Amino acid sequence: MPHFNPVSNEVLAQLTAVLTPDQISTTEADRQQHAQDMSQHAPRLSEVVVWPTNSQQVADVLQIAHRHRIPVTPWGAGSSLEGNPIPLFGGITLSLARMNQIVALHADDFQVTVQPGLGYKDLNQQLGPHGLFFAPDPGANASIGGMLANNAAGSRTVKYGATKDNVLAMEVVLADGRILQTGSRSVKQSAGYDMLHLFVGSEGTLGVITQATLRLAPVSAIMSSAVATFADVETAVAAVVELRASGLDIAALEFIDAATSGLLSREEDVDWGENPTLLMEIHAAHAETAELDLALIQETCRAHGAGRFVATTDAAERQKMWQTRHHMFETLRRVFVGHRWQLADVAVPISQFPALVKFARQTLQERNLPELMVGHAGDGNLHIAIPYADEATRQGANLANEEVVLQAIALGGTATGEHGVGIGKAKFMVREHGETAVEIMRHLKQTLDPHDILNPGKIIPQP
Amino acid sequence: MPHFNPVSNEVLAQLTAVLTPDQISTTEADRQQHAQDMSQHAPRLSEVVVWPTNSQQVADVLQIAHRHRIPVTPWGAGSSLEGNPIPLFGGITLSLARMNQIVALHADDFQVTVQPGLGYKDLNQQLGPHGLFFAPDPGANASIGGMLANNAAGSRTVKYGATKDNVLAMEVVLADGRILQTGSRSVKQSAGYDMLHLFVGSEGTLGVITQATLRLAPVSAIMSSAVATFADVETAVAAVVELRASGLDIAALEFIDAATSGLLSREEDVDWGENPTLLMEIHAAHAETAELDLALIQETCRAHGAGRFVATTDAAERQKMWQTRHHMFETLRRVFVGHRWQLADVAVPISQFPALVKFARQTLQERNLPELMVGHAGDGNLHIAIPYADEATRQGANLANEEVVLQAIALGGTATGEHGVGIGKAKFMVREHGETAVEIMRHLKQTLDPHDILNPGKIIPQP
Which residues of A298-310 are buried (b: 16+ CB within 10 A; e: fewer)? Predict the structure, then answer.
């Protein structure tokens, strides 16, 4: 366990010297607001919250923390799902919320340079008039810095990639306050070690991202959607594999398990029934192409025994269908009043997706937990939402989550497809990567953050 | 400069103990065969060549080298273009040529696990019957290990990404002989530090890749091509930007400058004239979509003043057009008999491509060098082939290359889009990345290879 110092009056005085009075707070209210993300992990208070407004201030804060051995936990929007920004050892919460501007839009290059505190939805709202969007869609209005730190992904990753695939350059402040530039605005780069991707997904444990140049995609001229229901998960996944092999490059390929489809059909204005369901989105350059694509999707789904099949290019219908999916968690909260939630996030090679879903169902049934599963089927990514209202159920949910994680790893997959390691997944790192890999991770951490001040206790399991 | 030991009789005896007699050679002929890649860099002889056939043998060789402070330079196919596998300090050449098998094909997952010595073209030949291919196309029959080590790319990168975008997991032997597993078969991964991409593009200086799981793409049902000639580079690039904004997701978007188009029109069976030319390829799921796409491409090119425009779905015509492009270098060799070649490889944001081409033309004209430029326009990647037959021209070619590199960096780009740093580009690393980034690269190298035995003298400039 690292030895940290408390935030002394001397440290506060030094922080005050590099920040303005409105950029630093030790009030209980401000610390409480940065004590917990959207996960089930217990809140922890930092000792002081700071809101720098530029990279030099971030560097100044880190220099002070480095000198005094004070933990620093970066904070984006607090929308993470694995306790990633919870300040386990107190110290300084470094909020990037006031660094939330677009620095430069390079429309012809399909690029934008932004500050890390900018919200994902806010960014896309500003990009809309230019016919461009930042494709990785984490659902929530996550901060761009948080998305980069966690390598967030979502329903459109099957076509457009995860956050790591959509970043070209970053400015990163290192633990000792040095400011690093990595990557470039060239989409092709083979010029030395790829440090960009070392910092992406490092959850603020190797450096603080203070600026990023992102790849953008053109907003599609024609968007259409389809829903297909299947007899079982196996045939649904067989359809997914064949659709991917067709070269259609489907923009979203989402899975909803039978129980959740049933629940949504009862609660919302959809008629998917109690069946494994695929939701799909197509982005096309012409209306005729969209029609051809939808016909091929229908043919493929029917060949795999799809029951209901509905395709639409109507914007209102599309929106209804996707809103049902995107607001699913709100629906679940309404149904399971007063419950808290354990959210699982694992991913496997698509061929193993049926085996994973089957295992998860058995695990949930054995523990008398509801089956509420959705996934990004195109990527083999499965989420399970497990409600609990008492300690025994919480422990059961926890154990079910662990069993599913171990099974995903055993199937050649990963403990976390898009939520990151945070607090909850550190214990699986050796199982997933092996001893040598975790040793090297620890060595890299020591190299870049010798005093272990950056978001300590995350990612790397304690030895 | 690191202090290395020679390959002594004791070291040879130790190597002989872990290898079979046919796996080790100190003959002049074998060492000469591994002294030089396809670049203009001077050959250097290693002291011994070894051909391990499995990961444990690679680990054994590295343990011996680590203990005795002997340089080890990995060797794939020798097709690199920046001196990347030239053994600058002698020592051991570690050829992966005999580790050239497909380990496992996961067709439903669109993945294949291979050994590093397998040739790119050989892999795709074996994948063909399964309707799959490995998309990054470096032109030559490079080894997969070499492509990973250099983060190779090519004409289809605009749609399918570079090598770094198409690898999911690797086995890497570290400098001290430890065997590391990194990544997983899950296409989504947010589970700790991305060490996979730290080793990709590290040119064998951080570890030796002994196995890799690659992402594959389905072979497209319909492939079609188009050629368009333009009045100038500016309008050609304006068409490129508009085509990318259309959402067509063009599979190849190649640029050939006026002089090279003229030369090819004289020498080969094409009629592009002395005009900046775009070559395009479309991969579609339906014939009707291909027609629609080609119509939109034609409309866009015409709107930007395209002169000749030819589109075709005929396989023979397509092949002729692409062979002219792919065999361009052979054509150049025929025209410039007895010349050697300096090959430039830089990349910039696409908006800066016209400025880069303009600068390159001026530089070449000022030095009385021929203008022979081609590029992956969709990625802003430019290549210049400069022939020389005497020392004065060689020096001029070298200086022209340096000026173009510095200009590419000044335009927000990179010293190398796809050939890697090797010997020739190390001196530009500080200019491109800054002092801090190069310090960190050096620090990472020390962490992973404390005795600097792995491919020494590459990537990182001497302090």
Answer: bebbeebebeebe
What kind and span of H or E run contains A175?
none
Cα–Cα separations (whole angstroms), residue A188 to A218, B162, B378:
19, 8, 10
Rounded to whole angstroms, how far apart are CA atoms A271 and A269?
A: 7
Among chain B residues, the shortest Cα distance to A441 is held by B193
Residue A2 has pLDDT above 70, yes or no: no
CA dihedral B248, A349, B119, B88 (to 10 degrees): 100
Between helices B353-366 and B391-410, what is the axis angle to 10°? 160
Average pLDDT, chain B: 96
Amino acid present at A76: G
Task: Give bridge partners of residue B179 from the DSSP assignment.
Answer: B173
Asked if residue B117 lies in contact with residue B52, where contact means CB atoms within 8 angstroms, the answer is: no
Greatest CA separation found in chain B? Answer: 71
Residue A385 CB burial class (10 angstroms; 0-12, 13-18, ≥19)? buried
Residue B247: list chain A partners with CB under 8 A: 218, 220-221, 283-285
All residues of chain B having their beta carbon less than 8 Å from the beta carbon of residue A406 are none
Alpha-carbon distance B264 to B254, whole Å? Answer: 15
Q: Which domains does chain B have, with CATH numbers?
A: 9-97 (3.30.43.10), 102-218 (3.30.465.10), 222-328 (3.30.70.2190), 336-424 (3.30.70.2740)
- At A114-143, the pLDDT tens digits run 999 999 999 999 999 999 999 998 988 999
Complex ipTM value:
0.97
Give chain B positions within 8 Å (CB) of A151. Answer: 189-190, 194
pLDDT in tens, B269-288: 999 999 999 999 999 988 99
Distance from C-alpha of A279 to C-alpha of A69, rounded to nearest angstrom: 49
Structure tokens belonging to residue B16: 């002989």
